[in-house]
Amino acid sequence: MNFKNKTVVITGGAKGIGGSCSEKFVSAGANVCILDIDEKGKDLAEKLGTNAVFYKCDVSAEQEVKQTFENIKEQFSEIDILVNNAGIQRYGKITETTEEEWDLVMNVNLKSAFLCSKYAIPLMQNKKQACVINVASVQAFISQQNVAAYTTSKTALLGLTRSIAVDYAPNIRSVAVCPGTVDTPMLRAAIQLSPDPDEVYQECVDMHLPKRVGTSDEVAELILFLASDNASFITGQAIRIDGGLGISISGSKRD
Ligand SMILES: NC(=O)c1ccc[n+]([C@@H]2O[C@H](COP(=O)([O-])OP(=O)(O)OC[C@H]3O[C@@H](n4cnc5c(N)ncnc54)[C@H](O)[C@@H]3O)[C@@H](O)[C@H]2O)c1
Fold it and tell me: How far apart are CA 184 and CA 128, in angstroms?
């Protein structure tokens, strides 16, 4: 896949799945704008060379997003691809979730995708083919216990994806990517909350049919394909990359 002369904006592009996207899009020739609150994005942009630029931006805050997209417009004029990837995980059932936690998860996981799309789409209008990728989760389809706000935010991203697809066709597509468990700093931080992180990691491995968790590079490869012109007939869909999580019927071991 060749993304030469394309401008790609990646939220949460400093590390994890977003970091792999930043690396792979630069390798494929794109100009990459890394939007993140983590200064590690600056180090990554420096490592990736002149085709990568770091913008420190809390993507859940409208004024910061607006200003950042004005800066991107000044530097690159137009945008070809937006990857709404920034996200956070918080645990709790509804009765245990505070209003602040609920709002935080909704703002970072959902409102950010709305805001970045709002300011990116006007910069895509002259493009023959542009694309908004929303990184949701397999939890948009099946759910763990204790992640009510996260699951709700990820499920709502599928609605946002469809709305962008129908409102901005034919030249702008939108696709949601729904990963199973992926080995990233988010996963490592999440399992550290358990008294036995190794056991939780092993549970994650065992849940997936290939008996491993996914890698951020695998998810990034899918995102590059879906954002490429090779995927120009795919829009409005949610694509799972989840090692078959949740498709197996447990119980009898009869052949
Ligand atoms: N890791 C998994 O198992 C998994 C599974 C399914 C979906 N996802 C989703 O994939 C996406 C990436 O997850 P990851 O595992 O790479 O996470 P990560 O925590 O490793 O990386 C997320 C990045 O987003 C940035 N970020 C967080 N809040 C931000 C904000 N307000 N503004 C700007 N940047 C912000 C972080 O600084 C970080 O660099 C998330 O949306 C996550 O929900 C992850």
Answer: 34
- Give the CATH number of domain 7-180+215-241; options: 3.40.50.720, 2.30.30.140, 3.40.50.2300, 3.40.50.300: 3.40.50.720
Query: What pLDDT shows up at residue 22?
Result: 98
Instruction: Give the pTM.
Output: 0.98
Active-site position among 55, 150, 168, 201: 150
Average pLDDT over residues 91-109: 98
- 86 in helix, strand or coil? coil
The structural domains of the chain, with segments of one domain joined by +, span 7-180+215-241
**Which parts of the chain fold into alpha helices (H)?**
16-27, 40-48, 62-76, 99-106, 112-120, 148-168, 185-192, 197-207, 216-227
Q: How confident is the model at residue 1 (pLDDT cuts 50, 70, 90)?
A: confident
Question: How many other C-beta atoms can be found within 10 angstroms of the C-beta atom of residue 218?
Answer: 17
Q: Is the CB of 85 under 6 A from ligand 1?
A: yes
SS3 (DSSP) at 56: strand
* CA 250 to ligand 1 center in whole angstroms: 31
Distance (angstroms) between ligand 1 centre and the Cα of 253 equals 37
Q: Token pair for residue 91? A: 């645990």
Q: How far apart are CA 166 and CA 161, in angstroms?
A: 9
Tokens at residue 178, please? 């729904």
* Catalytic annotation present for 91: no
